[in-house]
Design a protein that fits this description.
Helix content: 10-25%
Structural class: alpha+beta
Largest sheet: 4 strands, antiparallel
Number of strands: 4
Protein name: DUF397 domain-containing protein
InterPro entries: DUF397
Shape: globular
Pfam families: DUF397
Strand order of the largest sheet: 1-2-3-4
Domain DUF397: 5-57
Distance between the termini: 36 Å
Order of helices and strands: EEEEH
Radius of gyration: 13 Å
Amino acid sequence: MLPELRWTKSSYSEAAGNACVEIATSRDGIAVRDSKRPATVFVTGWASFGALIESLRSGSLGTGR
């Protein structure tokens, strides 16, 4: 079980708050959740999260580049 985390909503999320990706830092890395299912949390390491963000920014996610 994760301790109480301080969640931050993505700036790209829906303004009404119904379709939000939220992240929080934990001692294990970065926690990610969907605001519609807050009990389901994915935790990944800092390097893996950084690589995901870089792939999203560059548009290379899923292209094999």
